[in-house]
Structures are given as structure tokens and as C-alpha cells.
Amino acid sequence: MRSDYDEYLMDDNLHINWYPGHMKKTKELVRNNLKLVDVVVELLDARIPFSSKNPDIDRLAGNKPRVVILNKSDLADRDKLNKWISYYKQRGIKAIPVDTVKGVGLNKIVEECKAETKEKMDALIEKGRKERPIRIMIVGVPNVGKSSLINKLTGRKSTVTGDKPGVTKGKQWVRLKGNLELLDTPGILWPKFEDQEVALNLAFSRAIKDEVLDIETLALRLIEKLMIIEPEKLKERYKLEELGDTPIETMDMIGYKRGFIMGRKELDYTRIALTVLNEFREGKIGKITLEMPEDIKN
Hints:
- The protein is of the alpha/beta class.
- It has helices at residues 21-33, 55-61, 78-89, 106-126, 146-154, 196-204, 215-229, 231-237, 247-258, 269-281; strands spanning 8-9, 17-18, 39-45, 66-71, 95-97, 134-139, 172-176, 180-184.
- It contains 10 helices and 8 strands.
- It has a 6-stranded mixed β-sheet with strand order 5-4-3-6-8-7. A two-stranded antiparallel sheet has the order 1-2.
- The protein is elongated.
């Protein structure tokens, strides 16, 4: 039975609209606590830097200093990642590639937060105010790695983490070395996805829970996309000499190659779907970026 927490809408075309109740509360939490922080750290998925960027955050953060983190950079195509870094640089924002699993790029986050707030902190000291921690708010969509980032920055397991969206709930202040404090927030999605391509990218990366989706159709759509943008990686991973003429043909070929066959020689599409989705998410198909700056619709 579907609960209010997992409200979603999905038709035969995989139309996705998912907005758990706690996300509305999170938006209010961000809005109400923004005045307490000095800089907003926006965490994006390096494989989908546009799709994982919540437009609400721009409106909520306003003129607050901003640091953009491209997490899971180890899973993204490096050349395409560099283009995204250049894209943000042209807009006056320094985007920092990070791998929270291995801890790559973490020092740059702290340095950039201090750089963004230096003028404000110096002004406070000049007024005779006692030096205080730089207060940072971390925001981002679910399952983008916020809790893992905090754990790495603190050097200890200070927050609850998981590989399912919505694990972090409520407000948590976390003290860091270097006189910094972080305010963590649960992941925020927006009430309605006007662009279903964005919704699909979020579902591919598991920002939207598999449990509320038709994973067989979702995997088919991922195969369709990979056939266009990364056909060679798809062939190499599943040892296919050629791809099918259609996504379903390619899906069938993957199933037969892996031996995902049930009784009466029927393909186990659920198993194929889970395999393709998980192997994309784990980087086993290859380092893949699903979108580019030129794909952004104005």
C-alpha cells in the first residue's frame, strides 16, 4: 500500500512526480535557517549537474555566497565534467569536483568556504567581535552524498547515511575542524517536474526511490539513452558485438548474454533492469555523464 510519504504519479509513459511530505518541511527549514549561515554549499551529482540542481535553492539562497560541489566525480566522464566546471566558472561560481567515498577534493571545499566568507569575517573582527565559526548550510537533492560528505569532513561518523533517498531527517549542526560549522538538511526535490528528462535522470541516479517506479521501464529508458550517448561502453560492459535496433532488443540481448532466463526460456526483465541500473550507478558500465551544458533548455 502506498503511503502519503511516497506520493507519486506514474503513467505508462513513466511520467514521474514524487514529492514526499518531509521535503515541504525541509524547504521551510532552509528558508527559516538561512539567516543563520554565512555560505550555502550546493551539492550536485557530477553525472547530472543540471538535473540534480534544484531551482528552488536559487530562490531560497538568494544573494548568499555559494559553493557548488560536483560529487561522485569519480563516476563521471572527466572531459564532460571539465566542461561543467567551465560552465559554472563563466557564471562566477567555482564548482569543485569531489569524491566523498575516497575523500578527494574535500580540502578545496573548506578553502573555498573560507574564501567566500573572508570579507565578512574580517569585517566582524574589525568591529571588535569575537571570532566565531563559519556557518555553512549543505543543500541538495536526495542521495547526492550530503551525509557522506559531512562524515568525511568531520573525520567521524556524525550523521546517519544510507544509499536510499530520505535517510537524513531534521536539522543537524555539525562542528568541523578549521572553525567551521555545518547545518545539514534533508534532500529537497521540487513538487512538479516540468521536464521529464530531468525526472528520468534523477531516477537513473536513484534520487527518486526505485520502490515508487516501474524499474523495468526505467532501465529500458536508461538503455535507450546509453545507446545514444555511450554505445561503446554499453557494448563493452555486456560483451555485445552490436546493439539492437531498438532499446528492447538491446535489453533482450543483455538478458541472454547474462543468462537471466526463467522457466520456459522467458527473460527475467526485473533482474535485467536491476542489473543495468545498479551497474550504471556503481560505474561498472563506465564513467558516464548523462547531460551537458548545451543540453540545457532556456
